[in-house]
Amino acid sequence: MLNRRGTLKLGAVAGVALALPAERLVSAVVGSPPAVQPFTTPLPIPPVLSPVYSDRGTDYYEMTAKPANVEILPGTRTNMLTFNGSFPGPTIKARQGRPVQVKILNGLDNVTAVHLHGGNVPHEDDGHPLDVLQPGQTRTYHYPNIQRAATLWYHDHAHHLEAEQIYRGLAGLYLIEDRTDSPTLPRGQFDIPLMFRDIALDDSAQLLWNNNDSARRNIVLTNGKAQPKLRVRRRRYRFRLLNASNDRVMSFRLSNGAEMVQIASDGGLMARPVRRTEIGLYPAERVDVVVDFSALPGGTQLVLQNTVGDTPATKDVLQFEVAGGARRDDDDSSVPAKLSVLPPIGAPVMQTRKVLLSFDFKQGAFLINGKQYDPNRVDFTVKKGSTEIWEITNADPDPFAHSLHVHQIQFRVLDRGGKAVEPWEAYPKDTVSVPSGQTVRILIKFDSPFTGLYPFHCHFVGHSSMAMMAQFNIVP
Ligand SMILES: [Cu+2]
Fold this sequence. Notes:
There is one protein chain. 6% of the residues lie in helices and 40% in strands. By secondary structure, the chain is mainly beta. Strands 12-11-10-14-19-16-17 form a 7-stranded mixed sheet. The two termini are 38 Å apart. The model is unreliable at 1-28 (pLDDT under 50). The site of copper (II) ion (CU) has 6 residues, from loops. Pfam families: Cu-oxidase, Cu-oxidase_2, Cu-oxidase_3.
């Protein structure tokens, strides 16, 4: 799907955008922040949020969205927007079947809406772009966790503001766990989330922000640090990879060419594991992989590389160092040949719809089906319980890549240009890449118990915040 050439072209997207008359060019030069000595900063694990209260049925959490000074580069402080002062935001660990309530206080100077990406939630809890919290306001989001175990994430979704506010830090992980599903997979301290995203900093380590200068975001962070290091034991680990970049496509491989066994996609475990040596991730996509370090001698260093990065700071994103000692770790984990039984998506298909993604050079606007987002317009009316095929076409020439994220449901990717996709990107998915000129077909069963209005949009949030968004209304 991804290759060096494809993504180098993608890197030119911002160049094209900069040539547009409507653009403002704020940061004309790349900042030169203090240099980082690679692989000296320990990889942080985002803190796991504790409930403020739990009763028999529900866990209650509280978070404040607020500005904070965060150490990104060693010895410097960067002004960010955070949840609870933490960047990335705290991780919420939910259990399948047990509801969670998250009370958010907006301590920002601006409005915010919080969206649980990949979550099957009521529409009033979905963080609709107009359903915002004013500064000083609180509201409680209800997450029923009725879906399969999965690596989800939460992020800002306020109308026109999401690109800037996600970039400034408003994102965190939300894991739904299930104790019965594949209990032999690595757990606990051997189950590690890796949130990747790019950033541009000036020479005093402050954020450079312009929606159109994605090509200048020349540092990739892993869990909020540049080129960190993780000491691993000689055993298997589960890594949950999330590309939380606004607009950067990434493609990961281990520097020794070792296999990463993909076990999960956006919406949870796949039916069977898939052995891969390179894994491409568009913005907002997730994969869970198992990596086995047990055969590597103590002291071995290997690097998780983003093969489409063009500088050390965007290419060599994370170093693993295998702990010393001759003995392998006691490791009773394993990857079963059959991971999960997936709910079927079946016929009959009641609707086939076209979703055309394009950029209008005259208006300087990103469009879906020829229109800019209007939060007061319903684009598709969908019958609850029905199955549909959406044919998504990227009508733009190189170098415009797009993607499509559909709120509330997990879909199956059928084919690209008429060719069936590989099992690792088939199902369950909530975000699909749509490179220039391609048509991708997805099969969606609207089997959520919830009705109402939900967005679908490109998840290059630089595009969605410039109106590359539409919405569907699920009716009984
Ligand atoms: Cu797009």
